[in-house]
Amino acid sequence: MRTLYFDCFSGISGDMTIGALLDLGIDGVDKDTFLNELSKINVDGFKVEFSRAEKLGIGAQDVDVVLTNGEMKDAGCANGLEHHHDHDNHDHEEHDHDHHHDHEGHSHEHHHAHVHRNINDVTTIIDNSTISDGAKDLAKRIFMRVAKAESKVHGKPLEEVHFHEVGALDSIVDIIGTAILIDMIKPDRICSSVVNDGYGFILCQHGHMPVPVPATAEIYADSNIKYRQVDVKNEMVTPTGAAIIAELSDSFGMCPAMNVVKTGYGAGKRDFAIPNVLRVILGETEE
Questions:
Q1: How far apart are CA 63 and CA 51, in angstroms?
Q2: Which of residues 61 and 155 earns the better pLDDT score?
Q3: Residue span of the structural domain in which 53 resides
Q4: From CA 110, how far away is CA 97, in angstroms rounded?
């Protein structure tokens, strides 16, 4: 059985997931093929940049979604976003987290536009794309997990919540990109380690929020994720990352006995006392 194991010892985010899946080096699942498939969503205003990163001696694939049309990236962690600098490579305290609102924030608010898409807008983008049906279905299910968490956090019905976070272009790329890669790899089974997250508080759009941030905590509560806090004073799991692993994995625990075929590492943007990478292991297990 073709089994994909997510080793979330340093948490998980959308860009880490894409990086790790590409880093597996599976035949036919490469950057060019990925970008060709991603172009089928027929949305402009972004480009994906790839580079190599080293995290405490571990080489990993670094993925960054660069917005080119002035649209702001996700910002405001408590609202369930995937902000690509949420694993930022800084020697940081909690205040380093809110890059788009405190370090760049007010100037960005004046010079860039937030695009407020709701879950229906995102679903339309997915349905109007020409990616595979399997990738479409998976992407919509992941987005729905984030949307439900947003609805709970904001205390509003799902159809009344407009999320610039859920609808932000970089989140769309992260989630649809993940769905594309999973559909290309076609594992028979996906499982995960216990998901490690940090502790403390991080500064977001609405002020200081506890780790895990509310949307991530709601995704934990509304899924079969097993999570624990480790001794890292920062966010390690983003809402998008939580939604991805909640939807993909059928169990959370030790890696099953397998003949390992490939391993891949996706880099986070921050530096921790532990390697800030997501490891994925592809192997063959018994039925």
A1: 7
A2: 61
A3: 2-284
A4: 20
